[in-house]
Every structure is written in C-alpha cells, then in structure tokens.
Design a protein that fits this description.
The chain is α+β, with helices and mostly antiparallel strands. It is built from 3 helices and 7 strands. Strands 1, 2, 5 and 6 form a 4-stranded antiparallel beta sheet that branches.
Length: 198
C-alpha cells in the first residue's frame, strides 16, 4: 500500500506540472499587450548658440548669439516579445515576472521644430549665423538629449506604467500574489557620434 509521502510527492509533481503548463498561456497573454506598455514623452529644449569672430585667433572682434527652441518626442517601452519562459515563475496563485529592460522604441527630433527666437538673435555684418551653424547646434542639442535621457525619470515612469498594467492583467487571470521586476536598463541609447564626418 503506497505511503502518504508518496501521495504528497505525486501531488507536488502534478501541481508543478500544472504551473508549468500555465506558463505558455500567461506569456502569450503578456506578449499580446506589448503595444500598451509604452510611454510617450515630449522634451522641450532651449538651445543657446554663440559664435565668436577673432582676429589672428587672439583678439575678439565680435560675438553673435541666438536662442532657439526645439522639441523631441521619445517613446519608451518594454519589448514584451523578448520575454523568455524562464522570466515567469508560477506557484499556485503566486506569479513572479521579470520583464525586459526599458528601451527607446521611437525617437523624433524634427528640424522643423528648431525655431530661432528672432527677438534674442544678435549678430552683425561681421559675424552672422548661417544654416551650417544652426545645423551644428541642432546636432549637438540632439546628442545632449540622447545622453541626458537616462537621467530624466523616463525609465522609472515607464516601469511604473507597465507594472500597473501588468498587475491588472495578471489579477484578471486569477493571480493574487504578483511580483513584477525589470531587467536593468544600462542605457537607453547606444553612444552615437553625431559629429560631421571629415
């Protein structure tokens, strides 16, 4: 006659197999809401430009200044297509999910949003800004936005929005104890060299 211990082992194995069988279903449900796990942020940036004209490279002859207003739109989110089976652990009514890192899904910094404030523009016949100057300041401003984006709070805002959405989804699937974490976002943008090629 089988012992009670044997029944318990069989029961535990059955429950474990049941939890493993739920995992593909849960993963497919999470992946199906991929487009909802996004945050769109509009960043306004003021660009201040200075151009100095010197004689013999030493004596400052004239200085021109301008201020321009720019706008970048950044969409960040979680690529739920990267979710792996090992990122989901299920035990009865408890579920632990490790979501992929936050990343930039779309970045727009249109040049037509680069608007020079004509009331602050200061140049002279000796030293004037041209299209090449404006383009260079525009490029540097874009690089600065890319480098600073990591520190704006956009990562934590995207994680908070995604966590709230995922908790609602998993509660609807019947889970009572939900633990959601994220893989580390090392950097939102890979280093980009926006300097002009010689």
């Amino acid at each position: 006659m089988p012992k009670i211990g044997t029944y318990l082992i069989i029961l535990c194995l059955s429950l474990s197999a049941c939890d493993r069988n739920k995992r593909p279903f849960v993963i497919s449900k999470i992946k199906s809401v991929a487009k909802l796990a996004t945050t769109e942020t509009v960043i306004d940036k003021t660009v201040v430009g200075t151009k100095t004209k010197k004689v013999l490279g030493l004596i400052k002859l004239n200085e021109a200044n301008f201020v321009a207003y720019t706008e970048a739109t950044v969409k960040t989110g979680i690529d739920l297509g990267k979710l792996q089976p090992e990122d989901v652990e299920i035990e009865g009514k408890e579920i632990k999910v490790v979501l992929p890192a936050v990343e930039v899904l779309d970045f727009q910094y249109p040049f037509d949003k680069f608007v020079v404030d004509s009331t602050i523009l200061k140049d002279s016949w000796v030293n004037r800004f041209d299209v090449i100057d404006y383009e260079e300041f525009y490029r540097k401003a874009e690089l600065d936005i890319r480098e600073q984006l990591q520190y704006t709070g956009i990562v934590s805002a995207t994680q908070d929005k995604t966590r709230t959405m995922m908790e609602g989804l998993l509660q609807n699937l019947g889970y009572e104890a939900i633990f959601i974490s994220f893989k580390e976002t090392e950097q939102l943008f890979q280093p980009v060299n926006l300097e002009k090629e010689e």
